[in-house]
Amino acid sequence: MIKEPIVGSVAEFFQHLMNGLTLGGIYALIALGYTMVYGILKFINFAHGDILMIGSYIGLFIFNAIRGQALGIWTMIAFFVAMLGGMAFSAALGMVIERVAYKPLRNATRLAPLLSAIGVSFILSNMAAWMWGTKSRKLEYPFDNTPIRFKGISITPHQILILIVVVVMMIVLKLFVDKSRIGKAMRATSLDLDTAKLMGIKADKIIAVTFAIGSALAATAGFLLALEIKVYPTMGTMTGLKAFVAAVVGGIGNISGAMLGGILLGLLETFGVAILGIPYGLKDTIAFVALILILLIKPEGLLGKAEKEKV
Amino acid sequence: MKKVLTLILIVALSGSMALFAAGGAESAPKSVKVGFIGPMTGDYSNYGDLISKGALVAIDEKNAQGGIAGKIKIDFIAEDSEGDPQKGLAGIEKLSSSDKISALIGPVFTGVAFAVGQRVQDEGIVMITPSGTHKDITNIGDYVFRTVASDGLQGEVSGYYFYDVLGYRNLAVLYVKNDYSQGLYQGTKESFEAAGGKITIAETAQEGDKDFRTQLTKIRAANPDAIYIPNYTSEMAQILEQASQLGIKTPFLSGDGFSNPEIYDLAPAYTDGIVYVGPTQVKESDAYLKFVDSYKKKWGFAPDSFATNAYDAAYILFDAFEKVYAKTGKFDRKAIRDAVAATKDFQGVTGLVNFAENGDLVAYQGVYKVKGTTPNYLGAYTVVDGKLVSVE
Amino acid sequence: MLNFVLLILIYTGIYALMAIGQNLITGYVGLLSLTQAGFFAIGSYATAILTTKMGWGFWSTVPVAALLSGMFGFLIGLPTLRLKGDYLAIATLGFGEIVRNVLNNWDSLTNGPMGIQRIPMATIFGQRISPYAKWSFLILVWAFVLVAYLVYERLTSSRLGRALEAIREDEIAASSMGINTTKYKVWAFALGAAIAGVAGSLQAVFVLSVTPAVFTFMVSIMVLCMVVLGGMGNFKAVILGAFIIQFISYLPQLTGLTNIIPPQFKHVLFGLILVVMMIWRPQGILGRKERTAPRGLKR
Questions:
Q1: If pLDDT is split at 50, 70 and 90, which confidence band does B383 have?
Q2: Residues sharing a CB contact under 8 Å with residue B178, sequence separation 6 or more, in sequence order
Q3: Would you state the pLDDT for residue A288?
Q4: pLDDT at A311 (0 to 100)
Q5: Residue C296 has pLDDT above 60, yes or no
Q6: What CA–CA distance (Å, rounded) separates A18 from A53?
Q7: pLDDT greater than 80 at residue C293
Q8: Where are the domains of chain A?
Q9: Does the beta-carbon distance from A138 to B265 stay under 8 Å?
Q10: Using the beta-carbon criterion (under 8 Å), do B13 and C8 form an inter-chain contact?
Q11: Mean pLDDT in residue range A261-285
């Protein structure tokens, strides 16, 4: 099944590198959301990818409503306003979902919140299909996306935008979590929920904030991604799942880990096919194999700390 | 207690189901029913939607004239296959036993067509698929027909056309692992290589994939004469856009999936110059233009070639209904099938329709070249004894 | 209409088999596994390939399907043991997708996306069990369900069942009691998988064709819903769950409202069922089976 690898020239290599990095950047943004929620609640929000999708739709509607015709400064502004709108909506949606579908199950069996999350995921993606149809909708570029070309490598402004946004988000988030009061509270809550509560931290509020931030980040990733893959009801599912794998590989609960995991997975997928000659059909398998491997070798992830299970 | 509860629930459910069974729809003597199976939801719902609407245009037209024999209304019942053979089977089961259809238009997809085809063959209901192109479908039996040229033909014409007329010697292919795309690839590969050409690189993708850059980068490195993408519109739109971003200037070739006008909504900037093989077009025949017009007026968008095939399929059925009703005053399924098989030189909007012995459409393929976002018809072709033949 | 109802009952039976397997893994051991689609596929393809390419009869393929699926269940079970609930769910979901991916790409064995068509019907004493003559096939499927029910009931009322429940309640305590948790969890997986493989065999001789597109994780979700809705840990309950879920699936067709009720309706409903059941009645409609002391102890 492995075909002869095509390494090609240096230009090829850098092209693949570029493709891998931008793909990884998207995974990283989404992984952040997963990792933050898991850090506090020790729970995977299956519906994360679908929140991403809803945020993208909202952003699309806003953008189409307010943008002008020509590609100019206003279109760029409109684009960012729309993105913020999508982020805000997702943040709110994330908080509502947490309150309604997860909070009641915080003390239930391990399975309960997971099953609930699967249910929420289903509801979201199918309601979207019901309300907005299954056809892909195009999100127009607010700028001219002609690729910049040099020495045989093509990079689009879109790819550059993704990288910039990802890096900025990463820095902002890290600063927020490390330096701000809420960030401190978040870290405390993720270390030990009950102790944090006893220390006077309003755990419920912190959890809500966590969901809000994670969801907003997912919406950002989705909106950027949508420029390329269009907006449709199942856009979040597979990507979301792989972003989860990225979070685990990097070290779930760890923000730098999410970034590392995301980039790594993006590169692995791209180079796995390009250089190792893995048939493209099995590309998705790469992610799951990576998951199983990391869970066998270093289950806490590359940057994670091993946790002792208390009796 | 729990045991009793379980029992009661099971009995209640079965009972209510039986009630449904008893109250099943009685086929009203005042109408004749035509069924349709296609993907009305899911990623490819666009195809199911478009195609069923093609049949509906025909049915509404006919009903406006009074229906069969001027007085019997035609009922159209569409079932969603979701692209899944299991659901397709459920659909035909309902259509056949509960709705008591007299004929079926569809299914849309090859995989579903196989499963449903075996069913209708066993049950004895005539089936005309307007888009199931896999060459083995009509081999299921004598109740299975199609108003679309089989993949076999499209592949053949494509291969020889690319080599003989367009002069390409090295082709790259990017196809998706589904039965439609892979079927076309295999057919085209066979004939292109028979003509003397070479497929230098064939990359695959999974259904639902959105990122083709890795494959395109590899294709770019292989430097082919042209790139063949026999896929559905959503994939092709992505491929064309990403190819342009990667600076690929190589011409693209495609198959009848490209005839879906959705492509011009999704990737309008990248369609110029593409050559694709699709259904033949009777040179701007009045009937065809009239059909496109009615379709557009009714639904607000243009039909694709499969919708047109569904339109013709519907009218073929009407003819069969008329003949059978005139002779017997009833709509016997076997008689309808025989009438359909006997169709000779039927004047459809896609041209003259004749069925081969096994239910295949005796057809030619059309070739189109896109200028901007408008496809221009280049001509009709077929392959006889391994040679490309242009047809008038 | 009757035929249509019989068809639904046949699908119910096939899914009930998978639900029984799921019940063992999720209901008894408490592991969230989303693998049934994968094992379903393996069983289906096993039967499809053996009957079309090697001329085997249906009945001989059933044990092969069960064994093959069981083996994969075993192989999946081993590494995933250590995973906690959430990771396990994703890993098992991944497995299902990997299976489908491989089936779709391994053209030489499975014919890729074209799938395998013209599967010969099952025969019994020389008579063909035609999926079109519903009654005989219905009896066939439900005979399997009955046997599966009895077998799995027996299994779980024995030591195996008690061990599994102990593991579910508190794994560390169970292992300190001397229960080899590894062994039991893996067995649960293998047994849960095997029955799904058998379901796959039946599916193959019903639809008479197999394509990779059928075995999506939607199947796993549906099976999970059946267990959650019916009642975890209770085999009768999950069969009831299978009924209800299939019934819901085909509600638009049954009520003749296909034009009004969109197909997404049932998916939204499944999602709602999961959320609502978890919050309101996590033990399912029929709750968990009460453990009674074995007869011998009553003295």
A1: confident
A2: B207, C113, C213
A3: 79
A4: 47
A5: no
A6: 25
A7: no
A8: 10-132+154-297
A9: yes
A10: no
A11: 78
Evaluate whether B368 touches B276 at the Cβ level (below 8 Å).
Answer: yes
Distance, CA of C1 to CA of B153 (rounded, Å): 40
Tell whether C238 is covered by a domain: no
Whether the per-residue pLDDT at B216 is higher than 80: the answer is yes
Query: First-to-last CA distance in chain A?
Result: 46
Name the pLDDT band for C42 (thresholds 50, 70, 90).
Answer: very high
- Confirm whether C180 is domain-assigned: yes
Q: Is residue C264 part of a domain?
A: no
What is the ipTM, given to two decimal places? Answer: 0.81
Contacts of A291 in chain C (CB under 8 A): 87, 90-91, 94
Identify the closest residue of chain C to B184 by CA–CA distance: C114
Backbone φ and ψ of B388, nearest 5°: -75, 130
Q: What is the pLDDT of residues C259-285, one digit of tens each?
A: 667 777 888 888 898 899 888 888 888
Q: Give the pLDDT of residue A2.
A: 39
Q: What mean pLDDT do residues B78-93 have?
A: 86
Contact residues on chain C for A115, CB-CB shorter than 8 A: 32, 224, 228, 274, 277-278
Pairwise CB contact (< 8 Å): B93 & C104: no
Mutation target for B interface from C211, C214, C255, C281: give the one with most B CBs within 10 A.
Answer: C211
Q: Is residue C267 part of a domain?
A: no
- Domain boundaries, position C50: 2-216
- Confidence band (pLDDT; 50, 70, 90) for B8? low
Q: Find which of C3, C4, C44, C236 to mutate to test the B interface (most B CBs within 10 Å of its CB).
A: C4
Residue C297, pLDDT > 60, answer no
Residue A133, chain C, CB below 8 Å: the answer is: no
Residue B55 to residue B61: CA distance in whole angstroms: 10
Strand order in the sheet with B103-105: B73-80, B31-38, B103-105, B126-129, B144-146
Q: Which pLDDT does position B21 carry in this prediction?
A: 47
Residue B217 forms contact with A (CB below 8 Å): yes
In total, how many domains does chain C have? 1
Q: What is the pLDDT of residue A134?
A: 74
B344–chain C nearest CA distance, Å: 30
How distant is the Cα of C275 from the closest Cα of chain B, in angstroms?
Answer: 22
| pLDDT mean over C12-41 | 90
C267 chain-A contacts, CB cut-off 8 A: 122, 125-126
Which letter does DSSP use for residue C24 in this model? I
- Options 3.30.1050, 2.30.40, 1.10.3470, 3.40.50; which CATH number does A10-132+154-297 get? 1.10.3470
* Beta-carbon contacts of residue A224 (< 8 Å; ≥ 6 apart): A26, A29, A83, A158, A161, A162, A165
Look at the pTM and tell me if it is higher than 0.95. no
Report the alpha-carbon distance of residue C25 to residue C97 in Å, rounded. Answer: 19
Residue A83 pLDDT level (bands cut at 50, 70, 90): very high
The C-alpha torsion from C96 through C100 and C102 to C103, rounded to 10°, is 140
Within 229-258 of B, beta carbons closer than 8 Å to A belong to 234, 238, 241-242, 244-247
Q: Which chain C residues touch A105 with a CB distance below 8 Å?
A: 278-279
